[in-house]
């Protein structure tokens, strides 16, 4: 403090002492609780709430006894007053976040800085033990309206014309989990601030970002387009297969591969797409060292072949296909690319409620589209694609028999089963038992209906030719079933009432489902998510369940839309596995779970895409091991999703009126 300001502060003290009787007693009424303290105790921190209050720079309100009334929490004020008296603080049984909020309100700067340091110590850009890797946004991720992006679009048109002859993609190396790039984004910095400051920006330097100044190191063409970056910088979806990851932005797709020596590295980047990318699918096990990649923009689908055995990787555009209607699902069944839509595309007097299926078969190298029964759900099992329909039928397409009827323009859509009440099949799950590989005719299917029923059907070897038989029915849901999963140990179903989950233990004999003693109830809980969702197809933030059917499956819970926190829970009982916090403070825009088969022990990873353009990885295998190995003496972990206190803090960060709660009986079509 300079000499002039020190003199000014001492003069102010002298004036206030004259007004309040010098070193007199100040009586306070804080939230109905009376406090008495000395004038010097309240005034030793300059430019605080109390210097303004006692200096009459802000109006004061007196109670009947003449005490100054302050409408704040008396418990927190008692801690702050004790700090003003002793210049020391005891943080036992104190909510640090709430105390810092009160210290900021009263302008107690020394205390606020100490509490901020405590918060700094609990957050790190290196994450916790579950943090597995960080993939930054590509450097040329530009808004399509910018001049630089228009140049990229022009180049992409030229690249698309030459890709059929084997265009070589541009290769770059990026951060792997073993590299030493600077990851000092410790602070909870907004996405726009991260764009301006870059990943090398520290929390201390972020304090001056509030003035909205632009980074002079950025080219002027980029600075002028920052306002349009937020949507295009956001990771829209992530897909993964084997040891490959595909990160999709609004107009750009970037691919990564896991190697033994370099970790996750950028291996390809597709040309900038003029239309927004809506669906992505990848197959890393085609054979011959090729990786197949498909993207969908509206009704159009582009298919690339990536020569993974060549360095640098060579990409070839196989073709562009048209489903005729908007693609709602894009997936690979073996090497075959499959596109599905619940909308048949007809309008007016010729309107139908049917769907469409498109298949590009590797053997015939042909694309075929066919109208199918009204589609409400689907699942895959080996070479089979099972389709749940609005009329209560479960149909299937066998991709191995696909080439046999090409001349008849028939996808061999065959009815497997029909619900006894003809209810729409809104969720379906297929479990292939160990006997399936031996005799090929033992299969178990669980499905959910719009009316809330959950049914299990089984096809036995002795019932071949008669189709699957109804095994068990549960009518515990009163809302449409949105998801169902049948695994080795559990049957899990989810309905549309705030993702209400019911689970049952499955009894098996020699690997096959058994009626003795039968399926027994396990748990009932909710995976609350306040994001808008479309029950017609899975969103990028589908809660699950995720995992292989012979392992423990999990739910991933994202409570509010713009949040940096995810809760991972066991699908069988809803118990909490771990909580994931973004290491750079950016909101999670999408997530998925992958079974990584790259190196050493196979691992289950949670991949999170962020509004900052980065992709972060989390080791769920370690998290599950820690849960299974937790002893009774270990620190108690909350039982499920967010606690009441955590939930209140989460919803404070969003406007609850922006999303309507899901209707328990909302129609699917």
Describe the overall structure.
This protein is α+β, with helices and mostly antiparallel strands and 669 residues long. Among the domains are: 3-122, 2-Layer Sandwich (Potassium Channel Kv1.1, Chain A), CATH 3.30.710; 419-531, Methylamine Dehydrogenase, Chain H. Helices cover 18% and strands 34% of the residues. It is built from 13 helices and 38 strands. Strands 6-14-13-12-11 form a five-stranded antiparallel β-sheet. Strands 2-1-4-3 form a four-stranded mixed β-sheet. A hairpin with a 4-residue loop joins strand 24 and strand 25 (454-459). It is elongated, with a radius of gyration of 30 Å. The termini are far apart.
Class derived from helix and strand content: alpha+beta
The CATH topology assignment of the domain at 3-122 is Potassium Channel Kv1.1, Chain A
CATH architecture call of the domain at 3-122: 2-Layer Sandwich
Number of helices: 13
Characterize the overall form: elongated
What proportion of the residues is helical, as a percent range? Answer: 10-25%
Strand content: 25-35%
What's the CATH H-level homologous superfamily of the domain at 3-122? Potassium Channel Kv1.1, Chain A
Q: Mind describing the biggest β-sheet?
A: 5 strands, antiparallel
Radius of gyration: 30 Å
User: Alpha-carbon distance between the termini?
Assistant: 69 Å
As laid out across the biggest beta sheet, the strand order is 6-14-13-12-11
Query: What's the count of strands?
Result: 38
Q: Any low-confidence stretches, pLDDT <50, length ≥5?
A: 3-16, 18-22, 143-229, 346-352, 534-538, 656-669
What is the CATH C-level name of the domain at 3-122? Alpha Beta
- Average residue-wise pLDDT: 75
